[in-house]
Amino acid sequence: MFLMTQCKRLAKPLGLMIAGVIGLFAMPAIAADAGTELHDLSAKALEGKTIAFLPMTLGAPLMDTWEYVIRSEVLHNHMKYTVHDPAWNSVADAQAFEGLIADHPDVIIAQNLNVQLLVKQIKAAQAAGIYVIQLSMMSNALSDGYVGGDWIDQGLETGRQIVKDCGKDSGRSGKVVILQGELTAAQNVYMVDGLMKEFAKDPTIKVVSSQATNWEATKAYDITTAVLQQHPDVCAIFGPYDIMTIGGAEAVKKAGLQGKVIVYSNGGGYREGCDAVKAGLIDKYLDWEAWNQGREVVVMAKALMMSGEKPGSHSVASYSTWFWVTKDNIDHARCSDIPKDGKPY
Amino acid sequence: MGSGKGSEVATAEPAAFRLKNIRQETLVFGTTIVIFVLCAIFVDGFFSLANVSTLARTVSVLGILGVGMTVVVIGRGLDLSQVAVMAVCAAWSLKLIGVGYGLAAGLGLGLGLALIVGCFNGFAISIIGIPALFTTLASGLFVYGVGRWVLLGQIITYMPPGQDFLIALGQGDIFGLPVPVLIFAVAALIGHLMLTRTRAGRFVYAFGDNSEAARLTGVSVRVLSIGQYAFSATVAFLAGLVTAGTIASIDTLIYNSSLIFDVLLIVVLGGVSLSGGRGSIVSVLAGTALIGTLLNAMILLNVQGDVQDIVKSVVLLGAIALDRKLHPRDEETARQGDL
């Protein structure tokens, strides 16, 4: 009887122990199941889905870097990929977007030419059940996702840097030239806004010229040449787009003011931007790594498709990190270059 | 009251009569001088040798294109493909030089392409009979498209390293004068001599004034037409090289800009009539001087780009209105598709 009672008392711990041992052996099997489950979930959500990319244009370093990375990532995940090139033309851009809604891909990744352009189309795409992610250039419509620079923050940072280099404690003139891109483009609007906020804090900073170049390097050259003649003691030149700013930098070089005038810009850290820093054309380059953005935007697309949320129900954002690249730390920049044959990695 | 009115008419009439007799380029030169003096007084940093040299350099590409356009417009034509030819052919040359073709071969092929486009324009207009407006609009689009997809692949083509000669075309100075200005001067001189001193030049005027009469007199109008467009394309290629030299790269996006209308602006402004047969290279110099002065002053005054466009458009409208008043459309010789 005593033995029976002892056995009964032992039954529970023994059972637990046996269960534990069995559990221990069974663990890898269960873990493998979760892994398979996730793998299946991912495959089910992604395989055969179509991702469409609509940049402002192709054939420029920034857009070609994105295009290469997005294409490589999408194909690697067994998804389909389409790309359209509106050649920096807003009418063609809107038409291409409307064409995409009709083609009904699962995700549209769009870089917006200006803040107003695709507002209607983005809403229409979401209503049709397509996720829309905006890349680098925001419009006035919220979409399912945004990947790109925090332009206001970058404008403030550039403003702080310019105030530090040219402001009241620097012993320099405080004269600043702003080479604007297009007056209604998001990057331009927000960055210049940020700059002006910082400039307002230092009365010695004086913007002597702030004109639109329509992203053209030639126009940047013409404006800079004329303004440098009027104000040879300009301290800082800022352009929100590296490729355009190089035009202004060439004018600085021609005027023999390299090193005296500090040229600020920012960009995706591709070879052309790095070359400009190495050549001393751009002195301070805010690098936001376009290569990473390409990966991020595909990660976001995958997350949206796997979440199964209804398009238009949520908005997520991933603001790119950035760092200053100068001649001194150029070795740490990625300076990404895409292979000549354009074959995906 | 009656006598007062009479005296008004009497004083007004000679004035109107005199205005009609002033050549448009003289009027434009006069306006330029007035604006120049006003800017020299009121715009800080305007009146210096360096700035005047900058002013001239800034508009020299526009002026070079204007010389080509003038020759075409006097012959009652229009070349909207200039900017596409300029961007694509010059960019192609740079690309070829970059991949190992020599300087001469690269430039030769670029020029060859420009000539093909120019000759095609002339052929389509004079032999097939398509209006110049549509021919050159289409050929410009075609060249741009082929350039983007077949020849270049990139929007921006960079100057290969070590091309000092090409850089000098855009950035060099000879005797203190910017090279682009000298190229403009040479192009203008060649255009001027060609139009005024050669038989072909006189025929261009004859053809522009009355194409049918020119043909009946025995002018080989088709060859003439092809020659005009080939000249315009050659000049456009040259303008492309100057642009490429200036910023060490050429951006084919320039095709999407309003540059071609700026070219038309300086041509019409100086008094080259869109109905053909009137104007000269001096007209282009006048138009270029006025626009150059305005643009430079607006940059120095920090006038926003959109406002600059408004000013340019108002000047263009005014110039075309004046052109229509001074040279009314000749219903006898006007053809469908003429501007």
Structural notes for this entry:
The complex is a heterodimer of chains A (345) and B (339). In chain A, strand 9, helix 9 (271-278) and strand 10 form a beta-alpha-beta unit. Chain A folds into two domains: 46-149 and 290-321, Response regulator (Rossmann fold); 151-287, Rossmann fold, CATH 3.40.50. Helices cover 48% and strands 16% of the residues of chain A. With 345 residues, chain A is an alpha/beta fold. In chain B, helix 3 packs across helix 9 and helix 12 runs parallel beside helix 14. Chain B has helices at 2-21, 24-42, 49-74, 82-98, 103-128, 132-152, 164-171, 179-197, 199-209, 211-216, 221-247, 259-269, 281-300, 305-326, and strands spanning 156-158, 173-174, 177-178, 249-251. Chain B has a two-stranded antiparallel ribbon. The chains are: A alpha/beta (345), B mainly alpha (339). Chains A and B meet through strand 7, helix 7 and helix 8 of A and helix 3, helix 11 and helix 13 of B.
Assign a percent range to the helix content of chain A. Answer: 40-55%
Strand content of chain B: under 5%
The tally of beta strands of chain B, per DSSP, is 4
Succession of helices and strands of chain A: HEHEHEHEEHEHEHEHEHEHEE
| Number of E-state strands of chain A | 12
Radius of gyration of chain B: 21 Å
Report the radius of gyration of chain A as a whole number of Å: 27 Å
Global mean pLDDT of chain B? 87
What order do the strands of the largest sheet of chain A run in, or round the barrel if closed? 2-1-3-4-5-11
Look at the helices and sheets of chain A and give the structural class.
alpha/beta
Uncertain segments of chain A are none
Q: How many structurally independent domains of chain A?
A: 2
Strand content of chain A: 15-25%
The overall pLDDT average of chain A reads: 90
